[in-house]
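pasting input
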Amino acid sequence: MNRIKQTVFLCLISCIAASITNAQPKTIPQKVDALLKRMTLAEKIGQLNQLNGDWEATGPITKDLGNKLDAIKHGEIGSVLNIVGVKHTRAFQEAAMQSRLKIPLLFGQDVIHGYSITFPIPLGEAASWDMPAIERSARIAATEAAAGGIQWTFAPMVDIARDPRWGRVMEGAGEDPYLGSLIATARVHGFQGKGLGNLDAIMACAKHFAAYGAAIGGRDYNSVDMSLRTLWEVYLPPFKAAADAGASTFMNSFNDLNGTPASANRYLMRDILKGKWGFKGFVVSDWGSIGEMINHGYVKDGYEAAEASINAGSDMDMESRSYINHLAKLVADKKVTIATIDEAVRRILTKKFELGLFDDPYRFSDADREKRVMNTPEHLEAARDIARKSIVLLKNEHNVLPLSKDLNSIALIGPLVKAKKEMKGFWSLDVGDESQIVSLYEGMQQAAGKTNLLYARGCDITDTSRAGFDEAYKTAMQADVVIMAMGERPDMTGEAKSRSNIHLPGVQEDLIKAISATGKPLVVLLMSGRPMVFNWTADHVPAILYTWWLGNQAGNAMTDILYGNYNPGAKLPITFPRTEGQIPIYYNHLNTGRPAHADNDVNYTSAYIDLPNSPKYAFGHGLSYTTFSYSNLKFSKKSMLKTGSITVSFDLQNTGKYAGEEVAQFYLRQMVSQPVRPIKELKGFQKVMLQPGETKTITFTIDKEKLAFYNDQLERITQPGEFQLMVGSASDDIRLQGDFQLL
Ligand code: BGC
């Protein structure tokens, strides 16, 4: 090359290089980097600060930031929670558009089981064991919430809960890591739909990371002390599933875990979530939880709290104002690096870009769409469907159910017969129209045809007056069948709603006894957000339905079941104890060295001398109006290598008169293992619809993943040896079993 050519060539190269450097950022990471370069430290810290709107609050609201809209205009707030509706969110977004860099706000909300239409509480939906239905419920909630200006839900709650005293059991999927993981996945997919950027997709938030459900004594916010092996084996799997499903955000939790508050838990956030699991979203603290580390005694003031949290990986501070008040000084004092701040801001901005908010900050603010999308007939139909699928038939002796359509009269008795708003349960939003909620009474009025409906309230939920008993008794005496609607108040489960006594409250069980004395066929519907204790009812009343809080379509769903227009197929996702003294109680426990072999086997066994070990209703229990038989268990082979698999099959037949669905459950046990393994663990299930007389062959594949567990070094391993496979209708109703070997 001669000199001139060489010079031209070099010019060309440097021109191309210059044009690349000056090019408009195209990808989201490039856009985020470009924006970060323009941001002052104060603006960056603003992005990490989330404050409450002017709606409901679940903790103290600190007032020291003055007017919120002004703070937004100054770039001091990156996200607002607890404001809903296009009008309100738009007003806040308009303020953000007056800030120097016009970075849009994120609006977060607890869309836990529905937005305008309320679906069953999550624990109720979990009882459906129906992943498409659960996903659809979250999908509809997201569609409505997004139309109402929300881009982020603080759900799903994926905390495993083995203690029904804990009020927040209502918010999760129950006690089982396998079922909980599938439900976590379904909910994340439901909320996020086809992905952020679509107008009906909102960010999911897996919470509360981690182990919040294991609060000692079932007392909310209490400490958690557990082995890391239990953490990995039982409590982390649903979080991992949520992360794998693409959950955009995680929320940490109020509890300390083995002495370190979750909000400053580097092991959880840096090592596991952002490290091992490669999570690319951001972590928000729980409400005020960063500041609460002062009460924990983990740090002495807000300055230390902010330092501990940001360095441990909490990206956004919900309402404690520790970040906005202290991060700048922490950076000046070299306690927190700019790189740490940038990393947190980058994660948050990335989500804002993915949501399309930089293209159009008002894309979730369309008032017409808001009107159009809510409460559509399809949404209501879906709500009725999942509500029916959530109702558990605990007991049905003498075929009291389904009700005949030819009854002369039915007495409806109890404090929850006419309840409407209550049907929504805790963590529901005051967005929808209350008149659209269907009470049991209204559902029955629609469905009862010529049957005369009689009503008496009988008693209150918690009040102990028996003044209404006589009238209720007389009303029952006039009817062919009595239906009682009893339970808790919806505000008796939920956040900060732990109970030491989980019996059916007040004098309700006495009213059930009084009505039962009429000798009339009796059905009791129990409404609650947790497993309750109701032994007399369980032992004496022929038909019991557990209906949780079913949401808008509660009354229709209950009557669908009562009349057999829908055959119940739900199964308990959590164990029901006989009494509080058995708690914590869960099916997948270890065997111990002195297992009790029967409920009365108390001779130096691991048992109570005054109470059987078995629960009142076991995990996986739930009846149908039809019956199912299990037969013909076959193994494709009786041993496998780690790299191989075994296919198991059996025949499931509907042996009754009604078409119905059965959730056939597969449990495994490794007989000898170090460390020891539980007596059974759910490893699969299939929900199968069968016509009367119909038989289907069900298959289940056993592979390495189903046999793996965490050893003491927290490595996921398999160990050769003998396994037992159990197939059944509930964890305590095993119909088929067989052994195989892992070589
Ligand atoms: C709860 C969270 C909730 C947050 C915002 C907290 O008190 O623990 O689950 O998302 O409040 O409402």
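fyi Residues 39-108+263-275+286-375 form a domain with the TIM Barrel fold (CATH 3.20.20.300).
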